[in-house]
Amino acid sequence: MSFKDRPVRWCWTSGLSRVFTAMLLLAQLAGCSVYLGSGLWSDPRISMQEFLELEEEARLASEVPATQPVSDMEAARAFLDSQFGPYKVGPHDVLTVMLTEVSGLVGGTGLSAVRVRVDRNGQINLPIVGNISVDGLELKDIENLITDTYVPKVYREAICHVNLAEYEATNVIVTGTVGAPGMISLRRTERNLLYALVLAGGISDASSGWVTLQRLRRPGDPLKLNIMEPEGIKQALMEDPLEDGDIITAEPADPYLVTVLGLVKDEGPQTYQPGLKVTFLEVLAAARGLRQDIYIREGTLSRKMPDGQEVRVRLDLERLASGRDPNFLMQPGDIVYVNHTWDTWIQEWFNQHATLTAGASATVTYRGTAEDQLSHRGRETQSTTSGIDPFGFLQRGLIRPTAAAAP
Fold first, then answer.
1. Is the peptide bond before 152 cis (omega within 30 degrees of 0)?
2. 300 close to 312: Cβ distance less than 8 angstroms
3. Considering 6, 22, 167, 178, which has the largest number of Cβ atoms within 10 A of its Cβ?
4. Ranked by mean pLDDT, which of 21-35, 266-280, 316-330 comes out on top?
5. Residue 194's pLDDT is what?
6. How confident is the model at residue 3 (pLDDT cuts 50, 70, 90)?
7. Sequence-distant (≥ 6) Cβ neighbours of residue 30 within 8 angstroms
8. Average pLDDT value for residue range 96-112
9. Domain at 94-166: CATH code
10. Which CATH number fits domain 170-252: 3.40.630.40, 2.40.128.120, 1.10.10.10, 3.10.560.10?
11. What is the pLDDT of residue 281?
12. Residue 262, strand partner residues
C-alpha cells in the first residue's frame, strides 16, 4: 500500500478536541482575542490612549502650585529674600577696605588697602575715623557708610571698595543620599539645612526627601522634615542657624516593587532601587520574557494613580514592542498581568493534548522566541520531514518548530 493510500488517523485525547480545534482556527484566522478577566465577555480595561491622557492630567496637576492668600505670599517672599539675599557681614568676618581720594587729581590718590576684622560687637576700626558698626550690613551698604564717614570730614571726595576676605565658617557633616557627602563649610547666611544640602551636591534620586538634623549640642532633640514638600522647606528655613558639628542625614527611599504575573517565564515581584527609571519592556525582560509555547497578544497593567484611582490598562504587546505605543515608565506598586485570552487557552490545550498522526508518526513541538512573540517578526522556519502545519503557525512566522520524524 502506498503512502497516499494509507488511511489518515486523527488521535485525540478528548471528544471535544474537534470543537476546540475549530475555535482555535477561527480565533487565529480572525486575529482576535477575548479578555478573560473579571467578566467572561466584558473588558473593564481602558485603552493605552486613555491611560496616557490620565498620566498627562496627573502630571499637570502635580505642577500646579498651591494657592494662598496674597498677604501670606508677600510675607513668604519677604522671608525668602531675607534668607537668600546678598551676604551680610557679622562678627569675626575679615574685610578688605580700599579708599581712593579723587578730588583735585586726574587719576586719584590710591590709599593702601586695609584688612580689618569685625569684632564680637559687629564693629570695624579704621584709621582716623575709628570704630564703625557694620554688623548685619551688605558690602554695598558698608561702602556707602565708610564713604559718608570719611567725606567731607577727611576727604572732600573719595570712592570706597569693600571685599569679603574671610568669613566665619560653620562646619557641619552631611551624610546619606546626597551627591557629595562629607564636611561642609557654611558662611554666615548659609547656616541652614537647604544650603548645607545644596553644597553637599543636593539630594540624589535615591532619596526619600526626608532629612534628619541632629544637633551636637542638643543630642536628644533631633529634627525630621520632608524637604520635598513646601511646609518642610519653610520649616528648614525657619530653624535656628546650624552650629559646628551638627549632623544632617538625607534618608534613602525604600526600594520599590513591580509585580509581573501570568504568561511569563519568571513570575513574581521585582525589586528596584529608588530613583531608578524602569520601562515596561525592561520589566518584561527581567521576567525572562513571555512563554514560548503559545502566541501572546496582550497584557494588563494595574496602577494606582496619584488621586487614588485604580486603573487597568489594556496593553497591546505588538504595538509596544514595535514602538507604535510608547514604552512607558513603570511606577512603584504597578502590577503587570500577561493574561490568557481565548486563543491562548486553546493554543495551550492543543499543545498539551493534540497529536496528529498519518501513517508514519510525526510530532511537531511549537516553540517561539520572546522576540518573535513581542515583535511578530517572522523568521525562516526550519524544514520538517512531515511538512505538517495544520493551523498556519509556521507560514505566519509566529512560531519556530522543531520536528522529529520516525523512520
1. yes
2. yes
3. 178
4. 316-330
5. 87
6. very low
7. none
8. 67
9. 3.30.1950.10
10. 3.10.560.10
11. 93
12. 338
